[in-house]
Design goal:
about 85% helix, mainly alpha, about 400 residues
Amino acid sequence: MRSEKKVLIKFENLFMNKKIEIAGLLIFGVFLFVCSLEGVGYGFKLVFSEWANFFMSMTQSGVAPFTGLAIGVLCAALLESSSAVIAATMMSMAAMVGSGLPLPSAIRFGVPFVLGANLGTTVGNTIMLFAIRRSTTREEFNATIPAVIVDDMFKFINISLFFIIEVTSGFVGNLVTGLGFFLFETLRLEKVFALFEKNVIDILIMDPIVDPLGNVFNTFFGAKLSGILFFILWFVMILFSIEFLITKGLKKLIETDWAEKVSSAFKSPFKSWATGFSITWIVGSSSVGTSLMVPMVATKLANLEEIYPYVVGCALATTMDFSQIYGYFAGGVVGVVLGSAHVILNIFGTIIWLISPLRAIPLRMARGVGHFIGSSRNSPLLLIGYALLFVVVPLIILFVTQRI
C-alpha cells in the first residue's frame, strides 16, 4: 500500500513538473514573441520615420479620405500595431491643427486613417501561420487558413461599410466631433487617464529591452540601416518563438489536462469574446492577441466558429485599454475625436457582425477564401500574395490619388 502511494506521489510530482515546464516554455515563448513584434515595429518606425511629414501633407487634398484609408492600412501592416500608428498620427495631427490645419480637414483625413489602421494589423496572423508551417502537416496548415483570415474578413467588411458611410455622409466624423468636445471640454477627463500613460508592454519590454537595443543599433548604423537590421533580427526571433517555443508548448499542453481548460475558454461565444478582450486589454495589442490564437487553431484547441468571437473581442479591446485612452487625451481635441472613432467603429462592428444574424457573413467569407487558398497546390504562395495585398493595394491607391 505504501509503495503504491509512493508511486502515485512520484507520478503526481512528475506530472506537476511537466506542467511547470510547459508553463515556463509558453510564458517565455509568448514573452519573446511579444518582444519580437515590438522589435519589428520599432525597426519599421526607424525606416519610415522620414516619411511622416510627406504623409501628413496629404491631409487637405480632395482625395484625403482615400489617402487616409490607404496610409492607415499601409502603416499598420508594416508596423503591425494599429494602436501605435493611431497614437502617433493623433499626436502629429494635433500639432498640425495647432499650427493652422482646420479641424474638419484633420477629421476628414483622420477618420478614414483610423479605419485603415484597423485593417492593416491583420497581416500578423498570416506571419504567424507561416511560422507554424514547418511544424504542421499540409492538411493542418490548410485547415487553419480560414481561422487566420476571419479577422481580415470581419475588419474588411466592417471598415468597407463605415468608409462608405463616412465618405457619403460624414456620419462618423460628425458623431465623434460632438462626443470629443463633450469629453474633453465638459468632463475634463484627461487628468484621470494620465495615470495610465504606460501599458504592460512598455514597462516589461519596450523600456528595458527594445528601446535601449534600438538606440544601440541607431548609434552604430544610423536610422535606416539600423531599422532594416532590427527588423531582420526580430523577425527571426518571431519565427523561433513561435516554432520552437509556443507551438511546441501547445503541443505538449494537449498531453495534459490543461488542454481541456484552455479549450473551454472558447466553448461559448461570450467566453471566447471575453478571452480575446481580456488578453488584448492586458497586453495592449490586438496583433498579439489575434496572433496567439493561430497555434491554438492549428493544434485543434479551437475551431473557426469558436475563435471568431475571440478576434472580435481583440478588435474592441485594443481601442480602450488605459494607455490607448490616455493617448487619445494626450492628442487633445483631435486625439479624442479620432480615438472615439476608433472605439465606435469596433462597438458598431461587434453589434453588427457578432451579435446580429449578420455574423454569418464574415464566417462564410473566411471559409470561401480559405478554401480557395487551401485547395491550391501552391497555397503558401497564394497566402503570400494575399498578405501582400495589404501593401500593394494601398500603394496603388496612393499612386492614383497623387495623380488626380
